[in-house]
Amino acid sequence: MTSTSAAADHREGYVPFPEQAAQDYRAAGYWAGRTLGDLLRDSARTQPQRPAVLTDGGTRTYAELDAAADRMAHGLLALGINPGDRVIVQLPNVPEFATALFGLLRAGIIPVLTLPAHRRAEIEHLAAISGAVAYLIPDTLGDFDYRELATTVRQAVPSLRHVLVAGDPGDFTALDSIARDGDSLPEVDPSEIALMLVSGGTTGLPKLIARTHDDYAYNATASAQVCELTPDDVYLATLPAAHNFPLACPGILGTVATGGAIAFTLDPSPEAAFAAIEKHRVTVTAVVPPLAQLWSAAVEWEEADLSSLRLLQVGGARLAEVNARDVEPALHCRLQQVFGMAEGLLNYTRLDDDDELVYTTQGRPLSPADELRVVDADGNDVAPGEEGELLTRGPYTLRGYYRAPEHNARAFTPDGYYRSGDLVRQLPTGHLVVSGRIKDVINRGGENISCDELEEHLLAHPAVRHAAAVGLPDASLGEKACVVLVVTGELPSLGEIKTFLTERGLATYKLPDLVRQADSLPITAVGKIDKKALRALHS
Ligand code: OOB
Q1: pLDDT tens digits for 95-153?
Q2: Which residues line ligand 1 (CB under 6 A)?
Q3: Between helices 36-46 and 62-78, what is the axis angle to 10°?
Q4: What is the C-alpha separation between 456 and 451, in angstroms, rounded?
Q5: Which residues form the AMP-binding enzyme C-terminal domain (predicted)?
Q6: What is the 8-class DSSP label of residue 445?
Q7: Measuring from atom 7 of ligand 1, which residue has the nearest CA?
Q8: Angle CA(17)–CA(19)–CA(22) in degrees, nearest 5?
Q9: Cα dihedral 347, 348, 352, 356 in deg (nearest 10)
Q10: 273, 295 contact by CB (below 8 A)
Q11: pTM for this one?
């Protein structure tokens, strides 16, 4: 494929918002006609000397970040990478992430945001479906050498013309060596694809989610409002920066749009992250539930000063109520539950919500224009307050995965609602309680056991630190219920667990058949419990 046709082909396999919906979102002001690059430009104009990025080595002002993004954009274009081309970005939480991201966005080049934990299978797949022309990597991370990965990936995906390395380039090109001055940058259309996110699904290979400038800018700025961000806020990217949550909920983009400062930590452990919070006087960060739990416990032994922290956002998987109640007393900041998805819809508990809503729900929709339906297995709306599958569409929710027509036929209703696969109940306040995934159930002899429900009960056991329930193949039952526990002290016996669960009022058919012990639970690239890996480990 020549570069000219590559530049025009990015819309092939893209499912746009219907014209009428787009008009409505513009007319209502949700889509403001600004690009993601403009968000940085605006902050750099109004407050050039304020800090934009805080690093161990010093501060980068808005004027500096703005200029660095422009120079990066010119450098990328000078390599022959054209507006509309896709570039695989696999950078960890380092300050170069911000420069590279804004450089690509400014040039109208489409970053495909992969996670540092992705390996050959995922990267080759994402590079092939996106038709990427370049691959941005760090040199090494821990003992993993991304340059070796790039060498392998390039052999399999011939469209990858360039490998750019943040750090020691080896045989490739150093990312910082390409930056250069230039005259003018291409006009970027705000209704065009800005970037691509990778779906978080734990089954099958990841899918690509194309987000437009209009929809993603709204995602970030409306989220910043809900979190009451101001230019005095300091946001710490703790989760991998390429994930929707730390990127735009409100994350890096929402902070830049507000004129606050961002900082990065490569290591989310309490030791490293707490040191970063103390050093940069961090006010807001986002974590997954296992980290929230670990951080809440770690204040016992970590000495760092966390007094700057005002808001801890927790999402990505369900935060058990027992753990939700621990966060505020331990960390002395407000807890916010966030139920979101790379596909779009975001739900937040609000800062002024009643405590009980904050501890027991996963928030309510970000936008007045978010449309939600809760449906039964036949696709009919359930009665208000009843459990069902969440379907949604709205001003920042995709209408189809990129280049995935067959999957789209199943994942969307004919009228454009995305079938989330999440089981929820909606309270009269609009808040959602997530009760599990449609598929995260154990089918034990025809009875369905919700893994989330079982796990929530297990976590209430004083010896249990982490719990995961999985169905394992069984000749007579089809599936049997196995619970894998990380415990403090001794592993309770199966009998003890059954008695404990029965005393909590759990139905007999939901009691586990097996109890297994683990030192830790396997996690996905962003830190959620990885059920697929767990099932493989314990089968
Ligand atoms: C976030 O995005 P993804 O794309 O990695 O994963 C989305 C899925 C949801 O469909 C749901 O199954 C689960 O992750 N999930 C939650 C949850 N937040 C996400 N399940 C229960 N409780 C929650 N609070 O994970 C994501 C994107 C933006 C903001 C926050 C999380």
Answers
A1: 999 999 999 999 999 999 999 999 998 999 999 999 999 999 999 999 999 999 999 99
A2: 200, 244-245, 249, 315-318, 337-342, 346, 362, 420, 422, 434, 437, 526
A3: 140
A4: 9
A5: 453-528
A6: T
A7: 341
A8: 65
A9: 90
A10: yes
A11: 0.93
